[in-house]
Amino acid sequence: MKIIIAGAGEVGFHLAKLLSFESQDITLIDTDKERLNYAENNLDIKTIKGDACSLTLIREANVGDSDLFISVTAQETTNITICALAKQLGCKKTIARISSIEFINASDGVSFSDLGVDELFSPEELAAVEIQQLLDQSAFSDSYEFEEGALTLIGTTLGPTVPFVGKSIKEAATIFADLHFMPIALQRKGTQYTIIPRGDTVFEAHDQVYFITLKEGVEELYKLTGKTKESIKNVMILGGGKIGLNTARELCEKKFRVTIVEQNKAKAFDIADQLPNAMVIHGDGRSVDLLDEEDIESMDAFISVTENSETNIMSCLMAKSKKVKKAIALVENMDYFQLSHSVGIDTLINKKLLTANTIFRYIRRGEVVDMTTLTNMNAEILEFIVKPDSKVNGLSIRDIDFPRSATIGGVIKNGDGKIVLGDYTIEAGDRVVVCCLPRAIRKVESLFL
User: Fold this and answer.
1) Which residues have C-beta within 8 Å of that of residue 253, sequence separation ≥ 6?
2) Fewer beta carbons within 10 Å, N or C terminal of the chain?
3) d(Cα 20, Cα 254) in Å, to the nearest integer?
4) 186: Cα separation from own chain's centroid
5) Whole-model pTM over 0.85
6) Which residues contact 236 (CB under 8 A, 6 or more apart)?
């Protein structure tokens, strides 16, 4: 697959890195020579120095022969313009990064696809949506919804008192036969290996486990894991940038009581004008005295989304020490993900990872309509639509030549989620949610082509 990326900033470089690992044909365009030199020295990609808005330059990049053009420069108007040019020159699919949510929500009378932009995405909006989902499932460390909650992905750590700890999946399924969830991946404490569980896999205390569950299965997981669904109403957000503002706006619309702490005085006044229902504090959120003064102990959730990862981590640790129920930190350094649970922070989010999840839907073969990756785990969750000519159509799950490093977590049929076992027959139109390790992705894709 020939892919051109305009913009070699953090998001562009991360995308180029992940895509190059998959042996895609990548060309990276940027005006910054140092960025391109770094990318060329560290990745197996081609680079072109120059302005991607230049017709001469994108023709030089053979945009007309490309399968996918992704524009992730810092300017949304530039991204839209570049994608429009690329489409007119023959590129099959174009994706533009934007910062204005207004563009994403524009549906009446405005068609970006007519302009040549097939998809729009905003890393800041993706992060705001992720935060909302995490607050909805407050006791769990990770959460992701497929088809508006028809199936939900939930990640949690098993305590030693969980009733199925010490039992195999087959034994647990016999004892708890009427449950509505399926384990799809786990990681043992102190290891970095992702295990796709089988019937003989034994749950151990302190395993980090991901489940696919129906709506009723969420409550069952709360009971079995001993977690308590905390009522979250009071939320403090540290940082009034795009993510903080988007998150606060959407939480205010859902009647949360929101407090925002912003260090820049002009920005604080601007936020106060935009969000009359939020409490906006001008001050340094790193100050323990300030947070105590603003009654941080009464907060149900603390969300730190400043531009500094270390500030976000340290402020969340401080919030947890004040008995705040849920702490969420924005980090840019992927290495910090391994530390999140060990240091006591509930959840870390990363814009680059969220962006990659969005983009990878378009490079996966087969009809992939949604995907996400598992935090701290080397696995992907893919949602495929079964086509009439797909290899799996008409087969029961036990008869499919499925790789051992992949598993089916559930199926969505006509909008209804189902936890399925080996006797389920897959039919055209089914949306099948699959968890797989990287080595199994090609084989799984071929089954749904």
Assistant:
1) none
2) C
3) 41
4) 18
5) no
6) 258, 259, 260, 261, 291, 294, 296, 299, 301, 302, 303, 319
